[in-house]
Structure formats: structure tokens, C-alpha cells
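Cont'd.
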Amino acid sequence: MIFFSDAVIAIMLTLLAVELPVPEVHDPMDLLEGLAAHGSQYIAFLISFFVIAATWTAHHMLFVHVSRTDPPLITLNLLALFGYVLIPWASKTLGEVPNGAGVVVYAAAMTYVGGSMLLVLRHVVRSGLLDPTAPLGVIMGIRAWSAMTTIMFALSVPAGFVFGRWTL
Amino acid sequence: MIFFSDAVIAIMLTLLAVELPVPEVHDPMDLLEGLAAHGSQYIAFLISFFVIAATWTAHHMLFVHVSRTDPPLITLNLLALFGYVLIPWASKTLGEVPNGAGVVVYAAAMTYVGGSMLLVLRHVVRSGLLDPTAPLGVIMGIRAWSAMTTIMFALSVPAGFVFGRWTL
Amino acid sequence: MIFFSDAVIAIMLTLLAVELPVPEVHDPMDLLEGLAAHGSQYIAFLISFFVIAATWTAHHMLFVHVSRTDPPLITLNLLALFGYVLIPWASKTLGEVPNGAGVVVYAAAMTYVGGSMLLVLRHVVRSGLLDPTAPLGVIMGIRAWSAMTTIMFALSVPAGFVFGRWTL
Amino acid sequence: MIFFSDAVIAIMLTLLAVELPVPEVHDPMDLLEGLAAHGSQYIAFLISFFVIAATWTAHHMLFVHVSRTDPPLITLNLLALFGYVLIPWASKTLGEVPNGAGVVVYAAAMTYVGGSMLLVLRHVVRSGLLDPTAPLGVIMGIRAWSAMTTIMFALSVPAGFVFGRWTL
């Protein structure tokens, strides 16, 4: 299950970068301006890459201490993967749909991914799937990181609505 | 073989989501209408993702109990993978070809995938490749799930013909 | 090395199917005609998928008996992978470039892949990287299969030239 | 971590080839001219494939001797992967943006990848993550190769600026 999820996330992160727009530049001295014209998409890619890479790394550290799986864990994991595979589409929507609607779609997808990872973490802890020797500090660090990024993206959903209405 | 198949299906599921259409929205308040305009494609993606993810998870549970492989199993597995790699193309056809012809192509591909997984299961059971301690309930649950989804998609093939003719 | 190569070939085979053209059909009853209009591309995909899948499966059977790797084997493997990653591009060229030039590109790429696999096989046998208990029949079967497909594609290169000139 | 990185690089190399332009040829005898028209892109792909494949193979040889990981190594690895996933986008920019600006973007991305691999190597050696029995010759060979390719691409960044200005 870890292997299958790893493959899905590796593909997703690679496709995310393939979708980036090519800058239109005629003189190398104008390169920074050409890149700045697509700045919001490059920054969104940067955020997506490092937030997802960090979240996934954290969950790898968690799964080292998971001694067995059960059917609800498999279901929760599939629900999380469903969110992950939507990220390239959500990023494309962010880049192509202005007026805050793209922000809403992107932030909703990232919130879904973060929330589903919190559910995986909660299930693993509550159902006793964790190795008794798992370091509590690491588990709590992972939970804090996942909760923080999820809340941040959840707050971006209404922000997208407000920002979109305000600029119309 | 399991690893190679895992990689193929992980890539296929991720590409499936990359092909999704970006909604055209000008005001965040119209987002639901914008998404509803491509509703049939989003629902088809939802069905594809969860049916294939569940089928594949089921076969993972089966392969835990497969103690050895033989040449016919490798051949059947390649025939199944041939169907899996066609799913993104079949989904694109479903989205772009109206009047039921897209439904016929998509349902035929999903029927092929389901049917080939049933052949894999039948071969594994009949040729004694299963571990004698494999739980019979799990095997029968996998067969019931595979048979049910295969029959459902097989029935959608003639339904696509009828629906297509009727709307012309 | 086997894992990395597996991943490259799994991705390549999946991308091959994603590039397939969507048939243009208005009535489900015309589906076969719609598919036949792109028939040569569907048949090329069918050939590519099964030839590559069979060749790769054969080499998996070989590598089970390879007890160690050496630098030339790694180099030969990278040269083979270079050919494999070109297959989706060669298939697109086959579909888009008429008059035999597409056939020449596609057949040359498949000849390269087949030839590089024969070099891998020759090096493995000659440099004593094989387990002494490796079954000779399997090794010779793999060599016969690789040689046959390589020769078949090699002969298609001049055939493409002749066919292209003849139809002009 | 090795597995996840392997998957990212395998996907990236395969996507690199998918993005290659299809030659426009009407007569098989004109094939070489048709290919030469996109020559710079084919050569860039050739360089990217073999430089990245060789660098990655070298680091595999290194990681065989890494006996444990630590958080800085995971961070450095993610920073390196960030560069790798940008290569297909940088290659597309190289092909589509003339006047040296494309060269600057491509060479900068390759310099970033090479530099981040040197940082990984330095951390592994300095923090004692290496197995004490690791062969020093191999480690120094990997460092020399990584340093050489990084310097070569770093020198191409100003060369792109000069070349671009000169041809305007």
C-alpha cells in the first residue's frame, strides 16, 4: 500500500511541474519579467511541491511505526489518494480560472488532502495499529504539521470567494 | 510482476485525473454551475477511480496468498494490464464522443478489465497457485466484487447503444 | 536497477495508450467505422504493447538468474532504457508522419530496443554474471524471441523506405 | 526515500522523451533533414537523458554505502527532487524560447540539480552517514563527475546570456 501510494504521489508531483507554463521571452535580459508574468503559477507549484513532499515525508516516518493494516486504513488511504491525484487538475484550474474561483478549487483540494491525512493519522493512533515503541514526539509533530497546513488551506477557500467577489 | 502492475495502475489513475476538464467560471459563486457543466466527466472519473482502486486493492489481498506464478498467470496479467492502460483513453472518449458511442467504448474497456481480473482469479484458484491457508471468505468476496462490477459495465455496453440511438 | 527500469517501462507503456486518438463517431452504430479510421495507430499500439511487455517479461525471467551486476551491464541497461523512453515519441511519429517515414522512425526505435536487449543478454552470458544453475532452455528461448522481434523490426526499416517511395 | 526518488526520476526521464517534437517529413528520403530541423531539441534530450541517468546511477552506487538517514538528508533530497521535476519544463523552455533565454533556464535547472546532488554527497560524507567500508575511489569518482557536470552547466548560464544578446 505504501509502495502504490508512493508511486501515485511521485507521478503527481512530476506531472505538476510538466504543466508549468513556458515563459515568453525575446531577450535573456527580460527573463525575470517573463517568469514574473506567470509568477502566481510558479509560486503555487513551489507551495504544492514542498507542502505535499513534506506531508508525505512525515507520513512515511509515521508508517515506519505502523505494525499492521486493517480495512478502514486501506479505505482512508484510497480516499487520500483520490485527493492527491486531483492536485495537478486543481493547480491547472488555479492557473487558468481567475477571480478567486481557481483559488477556491485549489485550496479545497489541498484541504481535502490534508484532512484525509489527519483521518489516516487519527485512525492509526486510535485503532492501535502503531508499534508501542513509536516515538510520541514524532507522531505529535506530524499531527501538528498536518493540522496547520490543512487549516491554512481551509481558510483560503472563503478567502478565494471574498477576493474573487471584491475584484469583480 | 506485482510491482510492475502496481506502477502501471498508479500511473494510469494519476493520468486519469490530469485529463479532467478545467471549469470555466468568472465568479466564484458560479463555481458549482461551472463544475456541473462537466458533471458527467467528473462522475465518470469518480467511478473509474474508486472501482479500479477497489478492484486493485482486492487483488492485492488475493496475491498475498499466491505462493508461486506460472506462465499462464503472467500472460493473463499482461492481458489485464493491456485493459488498464486503455482506461485513460476510454475516459477521454467518454468525455468527447456523445450519443452513447463514448459510453460503449468506456463500458467495454471497464468490462474487459473486470473480465480479465476474473480470469486471473479463476486461474489462480484452479491451478493451485494459492497458499492452502488462504481465507476462503476473502477469495469469494473478491470474486463477488469483480463479477458484480464486470456485469454492471457489461450491461452498460448495450445501454450505450440504446441510449445513443434514442437521443439521435 | 531492475526497479528503476521497471518504472520507466511501466510509465512508457501507460503513456503509449494515453496518446491514442479518440474516434469521431456520431452514432454508436458507426463505432467500428470510427475506430477503423485510426486502425493503423490502434494496431501499432497493440503490437508495441505486447512486443515490449513480452520482451520485458522475458528479461525479468533472465534477471532472476543474474547473481551480480558490473559497470558495462549498467551502461548497456541505460542505453536500452534510452530506446524504451523514445517509443511513445516514435509511435506518435508513426501516427502523424505518412509515406513510410513514420514507419522508418518507429521500426528503427523498436530495432534499437530489441538490439540493446540482445546486447544485455550477450553481456550477461559472456561475462559470467549468470547464476550457474540458470536453466539454459529459458535463456535460449529469451534470445530467440529477442532476435526474432529485432530482425522483424529491422526489416521494416527498408520496407518503410520502399513503401513510402512507392506511394508517393 | 530511494524508492520515491527513483520513481520521480523514472517518470521525469520518460516524460522528457514524450515532449520531443515529431519531425515533419513527406518523403522517407528527407527524414534526416526533417530530424535535423529539430536537431537542437533532440541533442538537448540526449544530453539530459545521459547526464541525469549517469548522475542518478552514480548516486545509487553511493546510497548502497549509506547506512542511515537523518532529517537534513531528507530535506536535501527533497530539494534535489524539486530540481529534477523541473527538467521537463526547462527542456520545453529550451525548445520554445530562442535567443539564449531558453539556454539560461535549462542550464540553470541542470546546475541546480547537479549542485543539490553535490550537497547530498557532502552531507553524507561529513555527517558520517556512510558505511566505514565504503570504497573511497567510488565516492571520489562520483564527486568528480557531479562537480564536472555542474560546472559545465553553470558556465552555460552566462554563455546563454552572451549568445542571446549577440544574436539579437
